[in-house]
Design a protein that fits this description.
Radius of gyration: 17 Å
Number of strands: 7
Protein name: SAM-dependent methyltransferase
Organism: Paenibacillus amylolyticus
CATH superfamily: Vaccinia Virus protein VP39
Keywords: Methyltransferase, Transferase
Strand order of the largest sheet: 3-2-1-4-5-7-6
GO molecular function: methyltransferase activity
Amino acid sequence: MSRDEQSNSKEVQKNSREDQQSNDSGGLELSQIVFIGRTFEEYMKMFNLMVDEINGKSILDCPGGACSFSSQARKLGADPVAVDIAYEHEIDELEVKGFQDIEHTMKQMEPVQGIYVWDQFGSIQGLKEERTRAITDCIADMRMFPDRYVASVLPDLPFADEQFDLTLSAHFLFTYADRLDVDFHVATIMELLRVTKQEVRIFPTVDLSGERYKHMDELKLILEERGCTVSEEPTSYEFQRNAHTMLQIVKHNRTR
């Protein structure tokens, strides 16, 4: 990956939540991060998970953002680790920034409510309450288990081969297809597979316009040639219109 591609990857990883703000290139400034996350319940729907599937499992959430999956999964017997470019900042700073981002994002969403499906949240106020719950749980867990929140920049991860049973990746790959090329997608998924024993699940399979990732068939062929079973699975979660499918990648042979 070229230096320009690495810089572009860092820039996108700073802004991988509902609020896609434009910003200048440069170092990882806290002001450039959008620190918003989703709840445990959203994750369970996005990834077609049941509680008994995560009990006793080591799980990687990548990128984890301000999501509460790790917090709640830990209480249910899982051993989760979250990784995100944002975690290089102090927890107190992320907490302040996260609540600011929720307020800003809700205001931005008011004129574009029609591009979302509100069955889950009911209204912008309902969405705000869930995003607030997510970051509250996340920050509390970060304070209790700081070593389980790891700062890193994709496509490189500081973990051992097959360290995790399951890896979950939400609203990053495919979502930002206009800014992250197919080589980055392949490199990142291969890295996720490297650190995973059993399977990787990626949600959603569409870009920000709601269109299926244009290189999906090519990507699936690459993964199948490396011994994986790959399928696009419908889920019960839809907030962004047409974003209701996940990519499930099951390992059978080593993919390195």
